[in-house]
Protein 1
Amino acid sequence: MRRIAYCVFRSGYAIRNTKTMNPTSSYPSHTFRAMGSRIGLWLDTNPETAAAAFAQAEALFAFNEQVLSRFLPESELSQLNGRAGEWVPVSDLLWNVVCDAVLQAEATNGLFDPTLLNALEAAGYDRSFELVAMTGTQINADDADKNWGNWRQIGLDADRQAIWLPPGMRLDLGGIGKGFTAQEAVELLSQWGPCLVDAGGDVTAGAAPRGLPGWPVALAAPWTAESPEQADLLTLWLAESSLATSGIDYRRWQSNGRAAHHLIDPRTGRPAQTDILTVTIWAEQATMAEAWATAVLVQGSAQGWQALTQQPRLAGAIITQNEHLLMTESLQGLIA
């Protein structure tokens, strides 16, 4: 088992021993695949009611994927990307996700940037991760220099509910679209009781289950090929909020014989050069957590830590490549 050195700043508190708590043991649950991830649902209600609710939540994920996926040529996002330079009327879903993405880009000063699809594909992430990991890919450095980082130029016409992309710009809404969908799924499932949605490791909770202060959610050690079964570092109570993790530990591949990953630094258009292995962010909204997890990681541990601790609405943990864990004081109150 890997050993992680723990540092909790401003409090003098250090974590020595933790225990894993499994939310699947007491509540009806359902798993399926969507948006390139394993989705897990839990609901504090009777099994019959939960089964019907889970079917609706799974259908929600399937519908949103058809709209938001960059891998589906027929998706509404792909159609929008193919019509850059035009005003394009869009559905409520695509409008809301793009607006949210632009808001998060502004909040992070562009360190989260939804316009990086060209740079992402130039880095080799031009197919689903499963295919990229199996076959490897080639970096196209010329393409990486084109049409990214100009999120302020996205046109949003609320009266017509229409979006304009500058010629050549294409959007990637992968993480933020998944977070938006997880939030919608929580709102849906909450009609029947307290609920939890795990969207590929990014977790959004509704109300706490009966008798508990929150849903017990484990913070896992980074993934390694030597230890694919990730150990739990600690457990947090999560209620009416989200945890999102960004990392360079798993979605990696070979490009031109070199290791590459999917987290693009908007300042360079290249895979981020960072000493951070993973970042986990707590926020009230899933899309905010998603955006800030990326924004902190691409900056590296020194600047990323400074940015994180200056955000009063966030809490988080950073695991560096030399296996140190930096945790904000505000996360301590969530430890189970």
Note: DSSP finds nine helices and 18 strands in the chain.
Protein 2
Amino acid sequence: MSGAVIIGAGPGIGQAVARRFAREGYPIALVARGEETLRAAARAVEPSGVPVLTLAADCADEDALRAALDRAVAEFGLPDVVVYNAAIVQADVPGELPVRGHLDAWAVNVVGAHTAAAHLAPEMARRGSGSILLTGGMPEPKWQYTSLSLGKAGVRTLVRILDQRYGDAGVHAASVTVDGPVAPGTDFDPDDIAEHYWRLHGQPRHRWEHEVLHTARSAPGVLAGLLDAWQSAFDRHRPAEMASLFSPDALFQGISPSLRRGREEVAAYYADVPEGTTARVDVLDEVRLSERLVSGFAEVAFTAPTGEVRRVRLSIVAENREDAWLIRQYHAAAL
């Protein structure tokens, strides 16, 4: 075990991730610009009893960052995981920042991550293992945070590039996208967010994820909203309205074993349901796979006009297309 390098080890996510990996016995190398930030991070990790190395470097300074990474390798060996958590978080609208300001933000938000990955990923690939995990944010761009939105889009693209270049050699590149303000005791508690990094690092290759989205637990569920609309249309026997909730190329299997594709076939299926049949839906679980994909399970109790009740389990994948959530895949199984 060669340890974890945490770049951007400030209070919040950086320290929480350091504590999480230290709890598993990983030696920790902490990289931050300020000495006080490093001392605080080291104190946070200290109770775990693992070796800790503090390294002062500005992520926008390529030579300083590369030198810090070289020191981490010299002390602990090639790391098992590198976490890039540095960012310039500032409110700015289009046209507000001068070019220099955008370049400074881009240098920290994206280029520093690229520098760290380019410095360590080739050796990780030669070894055949390693994780490069980047902190993302802004699942959708916000004009009030223009430079940050641009930077987080860059992070998402960088993950894809790293996976294309090094994924086949065993290097897992992924981002954790945080959709809200980080604060202890909230839905965005840094310790909860840190669990994503640990889980990503431990994933076997055939189950690699490349983006995890951390959202507010109290936020209304995508599937709940879709299935509320589905239930309303079902109870009113509106096949075309129900079909409009599906993507044009949706895959669909109802209680019958035949597989259907597309809205026209979905509408035909629901047109055959006897009028007066009603449904009661309970969403069991929902997982945000990415900013545009959600999957989950629901149970439905169908009540026929005769009063007979039939219960089924639904497996659903929903996709965001042009800012509208649609059912991409639907599978029903009798209980």
Note: The mean pLDDT is 94.
Protein 3
Amino acid sequence: MPRTAVILLNLGGPDQLNSVQPFLQNLFRDPAILRLSWIFREILAWLISRKRLHEAQKIYAYLGGGSPLLKNTQIQSKALEKALGKNFRVFIAMRYWHPFTHETITQVIAYQPDDVVLLPLYPQFSTTTTASSLKCWIETASKMGLNIPTRIIGCYPIAEGFIQAISELLHHSLQEFEDLSQTHILFSAHGLPKRIVESGDPYQTQVEKTVHAVINTLKIKLCSYSIAYQSRVGPLEWIGPATESEIRRLGLEKKNILLVPISFVSEHSETLYEIDYQYKTLAEESGVRKFLRTQTVGIHPKFIGQIVEFCHQKNLVENFICPTNVEKCICREVMKKSV
């Protein structure tokens, strides 16, 4: 029977406090993150990583001395491999820390698969995340001689299993609130500089599609809802509104908040520290009556089942979901190359 290697692509995170500075430097030297010439990018990456070191180490110390992202991705990997069966093996490749792409490709070559499925763990496509991870894999695989059929799951912002998983988790969390008419659902996604979105990046459009799909699935009538963006760094203008601003606004209205981390599929610093600690503290200080958040989809059966379905599909580019004015959609790029 043919053997398939499924590659889970993600950002990565430092495994100990001594790893924080090189992890940050790897992150900011990525041309998809800092869009500058090589020499300026290298200098800025070093400066930014040094400047942010103390604060970042404080975050990872709070989380137990390192990022939980790899451990949680390994849990997803095992659940997926079990669901796929014996002719599939699931690997993990991180963009900015171990296991690096070249380390994972070495393991894949040893497995000798007949084909590869690349699955970025970013539901909504962005040039700063999905495209960067895919580019790194494709270029490194070519250099290392891994030249076998490769299918790409470019994005899945409205995939049925993904939406059902979020909806079930959201519905469960809503039961914790007594008065839904005074409860606001705040969908929070990782932010991006505004100029990246204006250059044709489909990320914000896809985040909005995810939220609308969830709302339509749940048919929520009593709760209000909005979309906000978190994790802003640097002096550039970012897409908004900022999650902090929405929390303050809702605090003035004495609302309850159920925060839904709509762009994350596992628990890591943005959920466990930024949301659970920083935003919860801000909510208490701002007058929010009750603040809760939903869990990420993790190994929810509907989410894992959706990935299994993807892995069995032969043609992973079937429908365009981005508007025609969005130039940097991975589906369009794949279709252009296949014509």
Note: The first strand starts at residue 4 and ends at 10.
Protein 4
Amino acid sequence: MSTTVCLAAARTVAYPQGSGHLWVYLQWALGLRALGCDVFWLEGIDPRDPEQQSLERVAALKVRLEQYGFAESLALFSLRGDIRVAPHHIFFTIGETVGTPDALFPDCGLRWHYTRPPVFLAQWPPIPGRSSAPYTTVTHWWGSAFEFEGRIINEEKHVAFLEYQDLPSKTTVHLELAICLAEHYEEWRSRMEPFGWKIREAWDVSATPQSYRAYIQQSRGEFSCAKPSCVTLANAWISDRTLCYLASGKPAVVQHTGKSRFLPDAEGLFRFRDMDEAVRALAAAESDYARHSRLARALAEEFDARDVVARVLEQALATRRADRERPEAAVTRS
């Protein structure tokens, strides 16, 4: 008998042009199906939204899911309390330091199990990179801030990128940012392009899962900064987007988010802490591009969705079985 899994995506239905967000959950769904699971794609609908808007969003999501075989697996629920979820019995995190002695933040009294984020390799084959293509990324620009232990920690990506606004003048590679800017596009394009950045509107490159993948695979590599919170709290996080670049054979130069047991600092994946390290990383990637392209793909293979999902399922199901067996054992002893 196959295992049935409800995959609760975080409002992909309300984010029709954000295919990078959709791919986060597609990696899991494709991995689950490859292991023989029956997958339900669970989406919440806000009943306060106009009915016609909700109908159009659901139809658009079905179109995007259809070519991956999940259109008929879409299940809807109301965000106003239609569904009651049983208490969680196991907690997973993609933050490598979460719940460990190395963490700089509390664990909320929970036992956390680390899992690598997955990438479904069959959907992300390696594609040769043109020497004239830019290093790119797809990113949000704004966010929030929160107070932690008396400090204000920022979540806004533009704060991180502005620290590296002079980078194009210090490297020979082309750098391009696809940013969710909407009505602020011209403002930020005119602000960043004089420094040598090429600015694209993210919606133009991520309107469909295929266009998002094509944008990444037509890039030379990735250059990206992390949210300041990941850098400050050093959770050793890696972006699911970066894994897509790596799987496609694209070297990735990304901001350092803390000491890692799994992530290299200069082998296919380069992790920088300051401007000098970023400049050296781009130069190193270009100096032996073919080698770092191979290393990028090899690193992504350690995040193979089939293996990652299998380990998560094994842990989750084993914990659930143990929970069921404990009451039975108590009855037997009594």
Note: The longest strand covers residues 38-45.
